[in-house]
Amino acid sequence: MKSEKNSPPVPPQHQGRISNVDGLLRAIEAYFDSCDDQGMSYTLAGLQYYLGVIDKQLLWGEQVSKSSEPQKTVKLYNSPDVRRALQVARLRIQAQRATQLLDDEKNTQAQIFDLKANFAWVDKQGLEVTSPDNSVGSKVAVVLPAAPGSVSMDEWQKMYQEVMSRRKSVHELKVGGEE
Fold it and tell me: Which superkingdom is the protein from (predicted)?
């Protein structure tokens, strides 16, 4: 019996009793298959529920000194093969979300929130610099001893020309800006 579209895939009866790497790999793939069969999005919480792991930090590879999981479960989830399989699963969930963000027109804010909350995505913060001539390239700030308003414009332009005439071109500078 399939669960309703809005509920997570029903976990198998062995929930919490996965005892080896192969069993875990099969369970991870079964989660994705179940989501695909039901037309549901993959989620980190859904995979965690499906695998029967209560300790989220254990599941996603964070160092856990004390876990509510049985010791053999902790040992299994700390094995390199399982760590890699979980990283791939997490990447698969992230890839689906990114694809949905680009292809779907619904729940865009929810998809962005999920990517930020669960996958460390951040808004790009940038500063756009344009020049009067719309050229692209390295820009150099020139600090003059006086602000344009404190001296006449002719005097200020003269100071500017003097500073610029002593400045080396980009081609004359060595790596690291050394002279």
Answer: Bacteria
CA-to-CA separations, 99 to 85, 102, 143, in angstroms, rounded: 21, 5, 47
HSE, CB side, 13 Å, CA atoms: give it for residue 110.
7
pLDDT in tens, 19-58: 788 888 888 999 999 999 999 989 988 898 888 887 777 7
Identify the pLDDT of residue 171.
59
φ/ψ of residue 63, rounded to 5: -70, 125
Query: What is the signed CA dihedral for 64, 68, 72, 76, rounded to 10 degrees?
Result: -50
Give the burial string for 65-90 (b: 16+ CB within 10 Å, else e).
Answer: eebebeeebeebbeeeebeebbeebb
CA–CA gap between residue 31 and residue 42 (Å, rounded):
8
What distance separates the 2 farthest-apart alpha carbons in the chain? 85
- Three-class SS state of 172: helix
**CA 139, CA 130: separation in Å to the nearest integer?**
9
DSSP H helical ranges for 71-107: 71-77, 80-103
Domain ranges of the chain: 21-119, 127-179
